[in-house]
Amino acid sequence: MLDGGPLDVVTGDYLAELTMLILGRDRLKNPDLGYAKTFLRQLEESLGLAHERGVRIVANAGGLNPAGLATAVRELAAKLGVPVSVAHVEGDDLMPYAEGALTANAYLGGAGITACLRAGADVVVTGRVTDAALVSGPAAWWFDWAPDHPDHHDRLAGAVVAGHVLECGTQATGGNYAFFTRHDVSRPGFPLAEVSEDGSSMITKHPGTGGAVTTGTVTAQLLYETQGVRYLGPDVTARLDTVRLTRAGADRVAVTGVRGEAPPSSLKVGVTRIGGWRNEVVFVLTGLDIEAKAALVRAQLSELLEGVASADWTLSRTDHTDAATEETASALLRLVVRDPSPDRVGRALTSAAVELALGSYPGFHVTAPPGPAQPYGVFSAGSVPAGSAAHVAVLPDGTRVSAAPPWPGSAASPGPGPNPAPPGGLPGRSPGEFEARGSGGGAPEGVRGEAPVPTRRAPLGAVAGARSGDKGGDANVGVWAETDAAWHWLRATLTVRTFKALLPETAGLPVTRHDLPNLRALNFTVTGILGDGVASGHRFDPQAKALGEWLRARHLDIPVRLLPDPEVGP
Questions:
Q1: How distant, in Å, are the alpha carbons of 301, 472, 506, 509, 549 from that of 527?
Q2: Would you say residue 136 has pLDDT above 70?
Q3: Coil, helix or strand for 106?
């Protein structure tokens, strides 16, 4: 990014939910750790160039120990002979929080970053701030916005949306993109946002870098790991149903129209705990009688598993009939065990499973040798009153400044709000009516007197993109259409009932649908599908990253007029 073209600020987001657990375990071993050590290695290569070009660096790599990272950055700068001023933001750490908690951190906003930059910091490192705060904080510094200024809510919300687009790097430039075959994404470039004083932004990338910036790639990232039409944040609530995307040239997408509301009166808190111990064995079942082979193993191990707190079996039918290779003739039977005691799920158990080798199903083998139990973590989200978490900017000269904004007390409701009319309009039809008319799973019936709409059985992905991800134990699946016609059909057809029918694993779980007409998108939240989060999960896809692609691969009746010409392709 520093080599590719002009920049004012480089940001870095290091703190996934799983990362906090890893950093918590690091801190148990060494109280001086708790920050992302990779940040220092990257800084060693780039600090001199950033200083030479006048680029500020803002990163949340401080994790659980931002003060420790700030000290390490100063030591690195002295070693390199680069005269930079370093500041940090702290106050998010709420430990001790509750019995059994390993880490507990409030999600702070961008005000501390703003204060550090106003004091002349060249490098700002933080603890747990929101991902988007890495962009909204510098924008507020540059344009002198204030979170408590109601006229600045829309501007801050626009910067928050820009921050959300940038936070996952190349995921906004074609990485993990549903329609990846349209672009060369072998080495996508990183995105950048040109933020304007009114809060609008232009998403682009440096010339000559790979990938692509399109309304589709930006839409996909906007839908990623969001829940509801209101994107709640400590500085402002951004209304995702007001975002408008417009192509403004090659690899340039304008983000406009974002409306902001007052922030909620509480802060989100991420809490991690050591949940217990886990282990797993994967049995390979080859050829005929796959189901019977799986049943035999389960029966042989049933007595051994009686004292284990949790034992989950999954049979993945990766086998093919009359397969040309042994691997494609094989299925995988996965056993995941969890227990508060490492002894009950340790090497004794996995060794006993492998010892079945000479007395079980024909062709018995496993994918890995028996291993010891491993600790697993649990992530949960809570909240605290906004004013109860310290939010402190520690300036380059060591001065400590409170950065907590004056909380207005009039929180934005987390519930869904009114949606603007969809592109192209559908007068007289409410989202509730769409829900009812689309509940059958296929194309909606024609209006009385109209000829039936010709349909063809095809995958949903022929007309819609999707992106999915995790939020603790929940998953979200964003689905979008590229044309008005496809959007009208998608909105009418993909109801919660149809969604559950297409993804049977969600059938018994709460699923909520949110409509985002400006983006021609639907966003589904699936509550509880990931259990206690990625570190403890036993699902094949523990972070739900491919849930959207599974949905796109499911078949339903789609109007022929919406499908790509098979002779031409999409």
A1: 32, 10, 9, 6, 18
A2: yes
A3: strand
CA 303 from chain centre, in angstroms, equals 40
Write out the H or E segment, with its range, that includes residue 220: helix 215-222
Residues 125 and 66 sit within 8 Å (Cβ to Cβ): yes
What are 108's two structure tokens? 């702070």
Neighbours of 262 (CB within 10 A): 18
- Cβ atoms 241, 68 nearer than 8 A: no
Question: Quick check: 428 and 524 in contact, CB under 8 A?
Answer: no
Q: Name the packing angle between helices 37-53 and 66-80 (round to 10°).
A: 50
Structure pTM? 0.88
* 132/109 Cα distance (integer angstroms): 8
Is the pLDDT at 567 greater than 60? The verdict is no
Cα→Cα distances 242→122, 231, 516, Å: 34, 11, 8
pLDDT band at 569 (very low <50, low <70, confident <90, very high): low
Closest CA to 558 of 484, 453, 477, 467: 453
Assign 227 a pLDDT band (cuts: 50, 70, 90). confident
Q: Is the pLDDT assigned to residue 434 strictly greater than 50? A: no
First to last CA, the chain: 33
- Among candidates 515, 266, 215, which has minimal Cα distance to 382? 266
* Range of 171-175, 376-380, 532-536 with top mean pLDDT: 171-175
What is the rounded CA–CA span in Å between residue 570 and residue 560?
13
How is 116-153 classified by DSSP, letter by letter?
Answer: HHHTT-SEEEESSB-TTHHHHHHHHHHHT--TT-GGGH
pLDDT of residue 439: 30
**What whole-number distance in Å separates Cα of residue 442 and Cα of residue 489?**
10
| Closest to 460 measured CA to CA, from 557, 546, 569 | 557
Residue type, 534: V
Instruction: Over range 421-432, report the average pLDDT.
Output: 31
With a pLDDT cut of 90, the percent of the chain lying above it is: 81
Q: Is the pLDDT of residue 123 over 60?
A: yes
Q: Could you read off the pLDDT of 392-426 as tens digits, one per residue?
A: 999 999 999 999 876 554 444 333 333 333 333 32
- Sequence-ordered list of residues with C-beta below 8 angstroms from that of 181, at least 6 positions apart, any chain: none
DSSP string over 343-372: TTTSHHHHHHHHGGGGSSSTT-EESS----
Note if the bond before 542 is cis, omega within 30 degrees.
no
Residues pairing with 191 in the sheet: 205
DSSP 520: T
The conformation of residue 305, written as its DSSP 8-state character, comes to: T
268 φ/ψ angles, rounded to the nearest 5 degrees? -70, 145
- Using DSSP's 3-state secondary structure scheme, residue 265 falls into coil
